[in-house]
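Hi, here's the filled form for the chain we discussed.

Project: internal
Contact: R.S.
Residues: 131
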Amino acid sequence: MDEEIISRIQAVIAHYGLSVSAFADEIGVQRSSISHLLSGRNKPSLDFVMKLVGAYPEVNLYWLLKGEGSFPESTSVKPESNQMVFPKEKVADQPVEVPPPAKKEITPNAPHRVVLLFEDGTFQTYRDKKD
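And the returned structure, exactly as it came back:
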C-alpha cells in the first residue's frame, strides 16, 4: 500500500515537471522528507498529505490515499479566481442555470465577514455582529 502512495506522489511530481527539491519547496516540507518518503524509509504523514493537496488542488485526496478517482482532477472553482462557476441542474433533460445568491446592499468600508485562511488548510470566520 505504501508503495502505491509513493508511486502516486511520484506521478504528481512528474505531472508538474518538478524536481524533488522544487516539489518539497512548493508544498513547504523539508527536502529530506521527500527523499525519505520516496526511498520508502518514511510513510507520508497527514500533515504532508494535507500540504500536498493544499498546494495542488487538482490532486484528488482519495486518489492520492487509496487510488480511487482520477488525477488531475478538474475543479469547478479555480483557487486563484474570484469568479464562481455554478453547476447546471438538469430538469426533464433540459439544463437550467443555477443563479448566484442574491446580493445584499453593502455600505462602503463596513466589513461584513473576515475569513482567515491558514497554511494547513483550515480557516476561521468572523462575522459582523448585526447578522
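Let me know if anything looks off before we file it.
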